[in-house]
């Protein structure tokens, strides 16, 4: 390519540039880089939660590929004669035996296994917290609803990928989890037995399930997830990141540091930090010591049989459900298992669909790039906390046996506590959160109008003590008043333009009611107005 | 739901503070980005040099840690156990490989981030956002193009083509669904039967010997499988998943359920070990209360009262196996379970 | 109410709220905690009496009756055998502080000689399992792997995979096995103390008990290797999940805070 024209030959481009030229001729990388190389990312720790997820996902893929080199996804039974003495001569599947080999005979195999599993625990926890960050700051609003759904799907798929991976070693703990899955499938009306027979290739446990879970775990689900991750990231780039309100930060700009070099270094460095931390945790702390559990046998079980934490919520629902069963016309409806499965789906769907519900209530069709402080959206925040409360209470329900032994409580009492507080807890959480948000709003208003309490007490000439309030800077004033406040939607005029009477539809009425619940009197504190501010500041004689 | 009816006043007015025209009139107006203030490293070259050295040190540390990783890999045998307070007796390989790998990675990250934080420009810049929605012109052009395309394809004019195409596309995935039929057999009556049958002796899981009534003491707990089922059978797992039996002996006068007493042998009762909830092997037997608890979801059954459910999510009692004694004095089954064992399902009835 | 709300900014308000919360938590705990939990035993009896019967009359008869026939407070001891006495008294479970479904392990207050005397007296009331000799319970030469298999069939459902213990109904529990001596494990299997079912020699022969003991000693001992690092209590995914959230995600968030924080600015001169 250097043999073009004479004028070009005067100056030979450096090698890197020549490679880039070559690539640009085929891929158009310069146009891509023009748009993205100096892309701005705002700095905030909570904006890095998603990166924790992304990086732990990459770590899981890297370590997972390594594990596939040694793992045999087979249910052929063999007699173990490897290096772990307490299992000598025990009959087990090749899946379990190869997991023992990875743990005891492959140098570094145990480390990679533990990194893989710890990263999975962190991945799911990271996604949960990331999702909550997006929820409580209102980052899911237009134009990001679709990306919220992508993220939600990643969380759900992550749960099932985690579950299938947890099942692969075919140890007594994970086998019990698979048994639960089979029992839950059986409970489905009409199709349950068919799905169970097809999934397991016959009766439980059969000889196929590990191999089938294997291809689901390493191929099907991660493949979909990888696609979703890419789509998620493309949308993040395309929409540009949201930011908190502050001086110079508007809905029409994004303030921060450029991708090259600062974010390249920070985000790239953060990958190594995440990997490093997880590697150190895996060096120091055992996770899932399958050698202590023994191979799965359908007639053996251990107490303390739990799924990994992300399935604990479903486990809790199943544990605390009363044993309802309806037998009618020769058929059985297993409500005791079916209802928890439905509630599980409904709770997940509720959080997934929330952005659409809120945008319907507000009727707001504009783009939002400035984040809400949670206090400034009290009803949303309270709903979110109520949801998290229900989730956490079910986590307690899922671990009721461990909580019982470690806190010297009765398992039955914990179950009853969870049964009651699954309903009561979210209500209490909703009310309390809302009160706290409104209180914080009042405090903000107070701060704007009267300044910051300085803690300095002054005695006035006539003997009165007053605390000096420092007025806020304009930047602070702006940050505290930049949020938008909605007025509740009205049911529209009861007479249309032509003077014909019009009956408001039921959905309209519902919407107005909900809107009032969100933005009506007592559900948000009107923020300080310029007039109020001026009146107070001039009245006090400041400035 | 029509958006027209939303009174426009319910939306907050778009705050266009970027102009910042009348700060004097509006004390809440956006003052704009604060002026950039330099860091120590920006004005003091010695501080910058210190940062540079720190970053380089971190990268060097990472290199050393990688060397340490390779060294540990070579030095420690895979089964070497060392005592490290407070972790306990841990694998030397796991510990050393994990720590060195973690350090090597962490130092790269820490170096890069320290570099970015102290030596790269930290001036915040604002980038404008652009509307995502297309302008009306663009939209009009796209709609027109689409209309042209649709017209040229004649899909609207020739519904026969359209309808048969949709039909074909809807049907072709059926082939894939049909193939899934090969995943497993039909359920038929498989879930209704177990390996138990009249005359099959109860074999002690521990000793692999048939049980005699006198072996089973009051307050003891024994597990049994049907005669003829061996651990190295190809289908052992499938069989034991339904056949596993839990045997306890209760003083006959303590048995409250009439049928349970009838189906027992001198107070020896045999129940399915598989929970009727989702199929965990249930066997947390409390010999004083005769309650048995499932370790998975805490369904509790009263073995002295027909294995009635007294707590938890199970929907029906554990099936009981009718047992007796054969002429050789061994315990035997007097038939199969009279109902399916394990989790309930639609066809169970 | 007005007065109260006026004081809500008092510096001690937070402390008061915290105290109220603690009191409420304590109250809730008391309400939910199973009744009949141990209170400190202050009534350690002076043990001067030498013979089993005398020991019995003083220490045991109030619940188990003067002749060991049992009362409403305690079961009959006729036929429980010397092994049961050796277990119950040797692990400090008996004498109990109060009758109940679960009598916890506590400090042993009898000497081994006294326990033997008590055991001899109870054994004389009716035949039962005899205190095992060391040859019977010693795990030397036992098959550990076979013991593991037996443990998973017979014991793990209550005592967890390696004997970490687990919950039973209404606040009862299966205790952890890490510091239980081989003799006491053997006796427990033989006699079925409290709510534990027994595993008599007729269904679980002596050799199998030894195998089980050998397995427990191998996998649940101070010197048991935990190759992967600190075992987090060995109770499975609940502790792993908590750890992953608090220390795993927690430390990563701490790192994120550092990465995203603004670098210190030079002081204005």
Automatic annotation (TrEMBL), chain A:
Membrane topology: Multi-pass membrane protein
Gene Ontology molecular function: metal ion binding; oxidoreductase activity; quinol-cytochrome-c reductase activity
Biological process according to GO: respiratory electron transport chain
Key words, A-Z: Cell membrane, Electron transport, Heme, Iron, Membrane, Metal-binding, Respiratory chain, Translocase, Transmembrane, Transmembrane helix, Transport
Primary location group: membrane
Cofactor dependence: heme
Reactions performed catalytically: a quinol + 2 Fe(III)-[cytochrome c](out) = a quinone + 2 Fe(II)-[cytochrome c](out) + 2 H(+)(out)
Entry EC no(s): 7.1.1.8
InterPro entries with a match to the protein in the record: Cyt_b/b6_N, Cytb/b6-like_sf, Di-haem_cyt_TM
Domain Cytochrome b/b6 N-terminal region profile: 19-245
Domain of life assignment: Bacteria
Major enzyme class: translocase
Stretches that traverse the bilayer: 47-71, 115-136, 148-168, 180-201, 213-238, 267-287, 333-357, 377-397, 409-432
Pfam family, one: Cytochrom_B_N_2
Location of this chain's protein in the cell: Cell membrane
GO cellular component, as recorded: plasma membrane
SUPFAM superfamilies in alphabetical order: Transmembrane di-heme cytochromes (SSF81342)
Protein name per Swiss-Prot or TrEMBL: Cytochrome bc1 complex cytochrome b subunit
This protein's encoding gene: qcrB
UniProtKB/TrEMBL annotation, chain B:
Region (Disordered): 1-39
Record's keyword annotation contains Zinc: no
Transmembrane segments: 55-76, 96-116, 160-180
Keywords: 2Fe-2S, Cell membrane, Disulfide bond, Electron transport, Iron, Iron-sulfur, Membrane, Metal-binding, Oxidoreductase, Respiratory chain, Transmembrane, Transmembrane helix, Transport
Subcellular location: Cell membrane
Subunit structure: The cytochrome bc1 complex is composed of a cytochrome b (QcrB), the Rieske iron-sulfur protein (QcrA) and a diheme cytochrome c (QcrC) subunit.
Name of the molecule in the record: Cytochrome bc1 complex Rieske iron-sulfur subunit
Automatic annotation (TrEMBL), chain C:
Subcellular localization, as worded in the UniProt entry: Cell membrane
This protein's name: Cytochrome bc1 complex cytochrome c subunit
Membrane topology category: Multi-pass membrane protein
Domain of life where this protein originates: Bacteria
Catalysed transformations (reactions): a quinol + 2 Fe(III)-[cytochrome c](out) = a quinone + 2 Fe(II)-[cytochrome c](out) + 2 H(+)(out)
Major localization listed first in the record, in broad terms: membrane
Signal peptide interval: 1-30
Quaternary assembly: The cytochrome bc1 complex is composed of a cytochrome b (QcrB), the Rieske iron-sulfur protein (QcrA) and a diheme cytochrome c (QcrC) subunit.
Annotated GO MF terms: heme binding; iron ion binding; quinol-cytochrome-c reductase activity
Annotated organism of origin: Streptomyces lavendofoliae
Binding site for heme c 2: 155, 158-159
Modification(s) after translation: Binds 2 heme c groups covalently per subunit.
Binding-site residues, heme c 1: 60, 63-64
Transmembrane parts of this sequence: 242-261
EC number: 7.1.1.8
One Gene Ontology cellular component annotation held by this UniProt entry: plasma membrane
Keywords: Cell membrane, Electron transport, Heme, Iron, Membrane, Metal-binding, Repeat, Respiratory chain, Signal, Translocase, Transmembrane, Transmembrane helix, Transport
Domain Cytochrome c: 47-126, 142-220
Top-tier EC class: translocase
């Amino acid at each position: 390519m250097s043999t073009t024209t004479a004028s070009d030959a005067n100056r030979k481009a450096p090698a890197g540039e020549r490679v880039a030229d070559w690539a640009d001729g085929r891929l158009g990388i310069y146009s891509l880089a023009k748009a993205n190389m100096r892309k701005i990312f705002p700095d905030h720790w909570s904006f890095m939660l998603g990166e924790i997820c992304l990086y732990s996902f990459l770590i899981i893929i890297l370590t997972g590929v390594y594990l596939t080199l040694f793992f045999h996804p087979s249910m052929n039974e063999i007699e173990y004669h490897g290096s772990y003495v307490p299992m000598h001569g025990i009959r087990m599947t090749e899946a379990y035996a190869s997991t023992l080999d990875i743990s005891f005979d492959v140098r570094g195999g145990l480390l990679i296994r533990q990194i893989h599993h710890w990263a999975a625990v962190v991945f799911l926890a990271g996604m949960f917290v990331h999702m909550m960050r997006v929820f409580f700051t209102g980052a899911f609003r237009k134009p990001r609803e679709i990306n919220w759904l992508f993220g939600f799907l990643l969380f759900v798929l992550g749960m099932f990928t985690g579950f299938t991976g947890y099942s692969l070693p075919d140890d007594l703990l994970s086998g019990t989890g698979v048994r639960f899955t089979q029992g839950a499938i059986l409970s489905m009306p009409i199709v349950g037995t068919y799905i169970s027979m097809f999934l397991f290739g016959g009766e439980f446990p059969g000889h196929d399930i590990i191999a089938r879970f294997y291809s689901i775990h390493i191929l099907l689900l991660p493949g979909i997830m990888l696609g979703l991750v890419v789509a998620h990231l493309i949308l993040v780039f395309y929409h540009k990141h949201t930011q908190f309100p502050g001086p110079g930060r508007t809905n029409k700009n994004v303030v921060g540091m450029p991708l090259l070099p600062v974010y390249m270094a920070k985000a790239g460095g953060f990958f190594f930090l995440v990997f490093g931390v997880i590697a150190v945790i895996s060096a120091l702390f055992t996770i899932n010591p399958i050698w202590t559990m023994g191979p799965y046998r359908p007639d053996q079980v251990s107490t303390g049989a739990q799924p990994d934490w992300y399935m604990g919520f479903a486990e809790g629902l199943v544990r605390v459900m009363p044993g309802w069963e309806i037998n009618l016309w020769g058929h059985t409806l297993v409500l005791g298992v079916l209802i928890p499965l439905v509630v599980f789906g409904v709770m997940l769907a509720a959080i997934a669909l929330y952005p659409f519900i809120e945008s319907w209530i507000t009727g707001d069709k504009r783009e939002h790039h400035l984040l809400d402080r949670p206090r400034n959206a009290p009803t949303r925040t309270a709903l979110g906390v109520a949801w998290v409360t229900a989730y956490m209470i079910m986590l307690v329900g899922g671990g009721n046996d461990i909580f019982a032994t470690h806190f010297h409580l009765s398992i039955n009492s914990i179950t009853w506590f969870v049964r009651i507080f699954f309903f009561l807890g979210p209500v209490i959480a909703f009310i309390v959160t809302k009160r706290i948000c409104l209180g914080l709003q009042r405090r903000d208003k107070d701060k704007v109008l009267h300044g910051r309490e300085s803690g300095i007490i002054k005695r006035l000439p006539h003997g009165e003590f007053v605390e000096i309030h420092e007025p806020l800077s304009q930047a602070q004033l702006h940050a505290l008043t930049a949020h938008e406040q909605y007025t509740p939607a009205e049911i529209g005029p009861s007479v249309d333009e032509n003077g014909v009477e019009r009956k408001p539809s039921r959905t309209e009425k519902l919407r107005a009611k909900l809107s009032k619940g969100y933005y009506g009197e007592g559900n948000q504190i009107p923020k300080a107005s310029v007039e109020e501010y001026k009146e107070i500041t001039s009245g006090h004689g400041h400035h | 739901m029509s958006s027209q009816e939303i009174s426009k006043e319910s939306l907050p007015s778009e705050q266009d503070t970027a102009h910042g025209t009348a700060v004097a009139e509006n004390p809440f107006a956006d003052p704009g980005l604060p002026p950039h203030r330099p860091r120590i490293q920006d004005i003091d070259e010695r501080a910058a040099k210190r940062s540079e050295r720190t970053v380089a040190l971190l990268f060097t540390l990472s290199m050393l840690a990688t060397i340490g990783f390779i060294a540990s890999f070579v030095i420690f045998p895979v089964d070497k156990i060392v005592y490290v307070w407070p972790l306990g007796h841990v694998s030397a390989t796991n510990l050393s490989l994990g720590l060195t790998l973690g350090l090597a990675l962490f130092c790269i990250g820490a170096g890069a981030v320290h570099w970015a934080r102290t030596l790269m420009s930290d001036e915040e810049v604002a980038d404008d956002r652009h509307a995502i929605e297309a302008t009306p012109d663009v939209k009009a052009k796209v709609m027109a193009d689409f209309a042209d395309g649709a017209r040229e394809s004649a899909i609207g004019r020739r519904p026969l083509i359209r309808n048969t195409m949709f039909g074909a596309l809807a049907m072709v995935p059926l082939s894939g669904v049909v193939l899934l039929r090969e995943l497993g057999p039909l359920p038929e009556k498989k879930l209704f039967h177990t390996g138990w049958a009249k005359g099959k002796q109860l074999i002690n899981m521990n000793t692999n010997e048939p049980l005699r009534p006198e072996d089973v003491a009051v307050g003891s707990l024994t597990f049994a499988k049907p005669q003829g089922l061996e651990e190295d059978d190809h289908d052992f797992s499938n069989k034991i998943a339904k056949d596993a039996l839990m045997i306890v002996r209760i003083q006959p006068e303590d048995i409250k359920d009439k049928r349970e007493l009838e189906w027992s042998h001198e107070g020896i009762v045999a129940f399915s070990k598989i929970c009727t909830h989702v199929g965990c092997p249930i066997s947390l037997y409390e010999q004083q209360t005769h309650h048995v608890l499932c370790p998975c979801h805490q369904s509790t059954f009263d073995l002295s009262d027909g294995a009635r459910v007294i707590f938890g999510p199970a929907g029906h009692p554990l099936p009981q196996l009718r047992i007796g004694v054969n002429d050789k004095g061994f315990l035997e089954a007097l038939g199969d379970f009279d109902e399916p064992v394990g989790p309930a399902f639609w066809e169970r009835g | 109410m007005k007065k109260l709300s006026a004081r809500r900014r008092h510096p001690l308000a937070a402390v008061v709220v915290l105290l109220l919360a603690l009191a409420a938590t304590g109250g809730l705990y008391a309400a939910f905690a199973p009744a009949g939990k141990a209170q400190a035993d202050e009534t350690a009896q002076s043990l001067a009496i030498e013979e089993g019967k005398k020991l019995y009359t003083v220490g045991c008869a109030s619940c188990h009756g003067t002749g060991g026939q049992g009362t409403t407070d305690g079961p009959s001891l006729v036929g429980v055998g010397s092994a049961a006495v050796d277990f119950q008294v040797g692990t400090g479970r008996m004498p109990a502080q109060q009758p109940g479904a679960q009598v916890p392990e506590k400090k042993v207050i009898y000497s081994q000689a006294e326990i033997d005397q008590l055991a001899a007296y109870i054994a004389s009331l009716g035949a039962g399992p005899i205190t095992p000799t060391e040859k019977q319970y010693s795990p030397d030469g036992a098959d550990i792997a076979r013991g593991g298999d037996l443990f998973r069939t017979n014991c793990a459902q209550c005592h967890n995979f390696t004997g970490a213990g687990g919950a039973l109904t209404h606040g009862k529990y299966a205790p952890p096995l890490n510091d239980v001596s081989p003799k006491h494990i053997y006796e427990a299997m033989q006699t079925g103390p409290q709510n534990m079912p027994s595993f008599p020699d007729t269904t679980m022969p002596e050799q199998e008990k030894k195998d089980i003991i050998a397995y427990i000693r191998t996998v649940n001992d101070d010197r048991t290797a935990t190759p992967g690092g600190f075992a987090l209590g060995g109770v499975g995914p609940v502790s792993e999940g908590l750890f992953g959230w608090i220390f795993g995600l927690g430390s990563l968030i701490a790192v994120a805070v550092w990465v995203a924080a603004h670098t210190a600015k030079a002081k204005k001169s």
